[in-house]
Every structure is written in structure tokens, then in C-alpha cells.
Amino acid sequence: MSHAQPLCLMLAPGQVARDARDLRWSALMAAAQEGDGAAYATLLAECLPLLRAICRARLRDATEAEDAVQDTLLTLHRVRHTYDPARPFRPWVAALAERRALDRARRRGRQVARETLLDDAAELGAEGEAEERLAARQLREAVGGLPASQRTALQLTKIEQLSLQEASARSGMSIGALKVATHRALHSLRRRLTGGAP
Amino acid sequence: MIARLACGLRPVRRMPSPLVLLALWTLLAAAVIGLAALIFGTRAGLDRPMTGFERMHSLAALLTALLAGLAAFELSLPDRDRRWAWLPLPAIGLWLGTMGVGCVGELVRVGLDGIRFHVSWPCLQFIIGMGLPMAGLMLWLTRHAAWIRPGPVAAFSALSAAAFASIGLTLVHPTFGPLMVLAWHGVAVLAVTGLAALFGPRLAWRVPA
Q1: Which fold has domain A12-113?
Q2: A38, A73, A81: residue with CB nearest B5
């Protein structure tokens, strides 16, 4: 006995909705490829929650996730000619978001790994309450009292949060010298700001 | 950002399917090989029928060139399965295998004493000299992959280019003789593939999609 049914009746309600949405997105993207700006804006706006969900699932930090969403939109724009309207749109755009979120996560991971002095920074953070009690002038003075190389290293690696490579290129100091200078600067600041020996 | 991207949106030409791109790439590669054969002249004895080994080696190189090319075009698209990367592996294995068999055959024939290490510069220069521009052409064809899977696409693109260059070499330079030529053949292909995998992504980022 045959129970032939229309495909949509055999699918879960959510699945039907997704398929209808996917068809709509495919059509909007095809129109965008033809140069229809309004269709493109509609498509991107409708996709945004999906992109956010993917990026937030990959990145705990909300700001990083939002940056990854922006990266995804830019990537989508750059490679929009690679979409084939005969294929589903959702996997295509989801793959882009996964890719950009993964890139951000890796970059973040590398940054953390590179900054071997993070423990020191965390300690400094833990002592943040003590720092907050100090006047900003005192902090400025303490930083100002550091040798120039330590001040530069601290500025580039901790305040501007550049990677060691970038900081090295900017300052002309070697990576090893930057690490040592940052470590000494943090050590020196900690001693001064917590009332230790000058 | 959405408003900025949508404002003044220009129409784009949809990219052809990977199979169409592969056909285009094969035609371009054939044209480059034909040009090289015209410039350098074909090697002596090209009209002689190929031995079984030579046929197997050439077929493996051709399969590697085609399948690595197809894998590169598929992987350059965001929604394609990453398992496309497995497609050229059997052909690569067969190709490297025939090179190995060639080396062993040579060893057996002339013995260890007969082997003298030398660098086959003409072979190396030809594969790198032709392989790199062809790899550049392939990187241009797959430039959109810079935002998707730059590393694997650049490596497969270069492998396909190097395999085509190697086929070109068999038309111009006698390759099936000395062991060292075969060995350098492999080294040159690996060099082109490795260079592209390393530097391809960086170059590709500078190319507008």
C-alpha cells in the first residue's frame, strides 16, 4: 500500500519552515548577485541571528563574537559570486560564519599562548582593586618612572595589546627583549603600586 | 554595515561549477605545455611507444593533476565537504609509487655502485619554472578560497600544476632513465606544492575576489 504524501507533510514543522526560509534566502541571494541591493540588505538582516548564533557558540566573548559576525558579512560580500542558487543557502553562509569564528578563536588562542606573561597580568588584575585606590596620577608617575624600553614594551604589549611580533616590528626590539622588558615593567609596577620597595 | 554593503551593490558573475573550472584549467595547462614543447622542442624518442611503466607513470601524473585540480576547486567553495581532500590521494600514492618503483628498478639494474648523486638541474628548473607560473594561474582561478580554506586549496592547486608540469617534462626532457632524475622530479613537485601551501594563502589575500 502506498502512502505517498507531499514532502512538506512528512517533515517536522521546523524543517518545513527552514526549507521555506532557505528557498527565500536562495532567491534573495540570487537577486543580490544580479545587483539588487534591497534584496541583499533583507537577506543579510534575516541572516544576522543565524550568524550570531554560530559565532556565539564558538566564541565565549560577546565582542569577539560580534567581530566574527562582521567578518562573516565582509566575507559573504567578497565571495558572493561563489554561491550557486541551485544549492541550499544556509550551509553556504553557515560555513562562512564557522570559518570566521574559528579564525577569531584561533587568533585569540595564539595571542593568549604568545603572551606568556598573562599570569603576571592576571596577578596585576587581581591587585586591580589596590590599583583603583591609587590616584591615576600615581599610576602615570609609576609608569613614567620606568626605563624607556620597559615603558615601550608595556605600552605595546599590555595597553595596545599588540602581538609580540607586531610589538617587535613597531618598537624594533626583539621578541625576547620585549618579554623581558614587559616582565620587568610589570614586576616593577607591582612593587611600586603595592607599596613594596621602590 | 549591512546598509554599507548593500548600498550601490554591483552585479557579480556567478562562478562556474568546479567541473567547468577543471575543464578550463586543463585547457590552460595543455596550452602552457604545448607552448613549452614548441619553445624547447620535444625530446628524442617521443614517437616510440611507451612501456607499461611509462604509461602507468604518465597516467598517475595525469590523474593527480586532474583530481588535485578538482579537489582544489571543490574545497575553494564554502559549502563543500572537506572530504574532497581525500579524492586525489590514491592518484598521488600511485604517482609516488611509480616514482619509487622507477628508483628501485634503477637500483637493481645498475647496483648501488652505479648510483652517483647529482642534481638534475634541467629537470628541476623545468618543473619549478613551469610549475610555479602554472601554480600562480591556479591560485588566481581559486583566489576566492583565500577567505575559505587557503592552505589546502593552495597546496592542491600547486600539486595539480606541478603534476601537469611533470607531464610537460616527459614530453620535453627524457625522464624515465636515471634514478636521480626521478627522485628530483618528486623533490621538485614537493617543492612547488610546499611553496604554494606556505606562501599561496599570503598571496591570495592580496588578490581581490
Answers
A1: Rna Polymerase Sigma Factor; Chain: A (1.10.1740)
A2: A73
